[in-house]
Amino acid sequence: MAEDVPTTGLPEPGHNWDFFLAHAGPDLNVARRLKRGLEPPAKAFLDDDNLTPGDAFDLALAEAQQASLISVVIISPNTQAAYYQREEIAAAIQMAREDPHTHRVVPIFLDATQLSSRQMPYGLRLRHGLKVPATGDLGETSQRLLKTLAEMKKFEAKKVVEVEKQKTAIQRIEGGAKSDVLAGLTEVTKFVRPLWMTLLILFVLMTVLLVVSLLLPGLGRDERMLAVTVLGGFCAALLACLLGLTALSLKHAQRIAEGNINGG
């Protein structure tokens, strides 16, 4: 049994599985041994053990991988011919690119000396992986994966907190009360705060200049019209940018509130 890794004091996870084990068919026994080394304390998804007869395996595998924190990819000379494993590798890389804090890809190399550069799946060359010793012992590999899991769960805890913040912010905005709407908008736009504040300051500045140009004595009709046209155009453009950025922030906040930080 693997040594327990303490994870106390963390919110309830927003995922169903800690590990998703991607393997070629001939490497199933290795995947089974690795799963035994991770459970408990972890929860590892392995197709041969966790699929129910009659499941649409392509959909079930995709759902399980999206609901996992870490995709463990068992790489061997068999991987190159493993169609479904290569699909899982591509999905894992995409999820990790969207947000490496909510999904990670860890290659596990079997028979590393027999793997050529052409046999290395695209996207994994730059990923730090673990090499299984020639003896085939997976004990150290399991322990290092569990330590990686403990780090990932810290980020998962932050994700849970952020999801709740964005849910509350959207509820405030939908509530309609002025103070609540302002508080909600402040929260959902925090990810683009520097740009949003810069646009707001420029909008206020252009508006002040527009008002001054209308009230400033001594300006001729043509000069006043030119100032109104130029400054009014700037104000309209800045306002459009502010509204567009706010709309994008609301859309992003809605995705986070639904738990879709990494697209899964």
Briefly note the structural class of the backbone: alpha/beta
Count of alpha/pi helices? 8
Which sheet architecture does the biggest sheet show? 5 strands, parallel
SS elements, strand count: 5
Unreliably modeled segments: 1-13
Fraction of helical residues:
55-70%
Structure notes:
Helix content is 56%, strand content 9%. The relative contact order is 0.12. The chain has 8 helices and 5 strands; from the N terminus they run E-H-E-H-H-E-H-E-E-H-H-H-H. It has a 5-stranded parallel sheet with strand order 2-1-3-4-5. By secondary structure, the chain is an alpha/beta fold. The protein is elongated and about 90 Å long. The protein folds into 2 domains: 17-160, 3-Layer(aba) Sandwich (Rossmann fold), CATH 3.40.50; 189-257. The chain has helices at residues 28-38, 47-50, 57-66, 83-98, 139-175, 178-188, 193-215, 221-257, and strands at residues 17-22, 44-45, 68-75, 104-109, 130-131. Strand 3 (68-75), helix 4 and strand 4 (104-109) form a beta-alpha-beta unit.
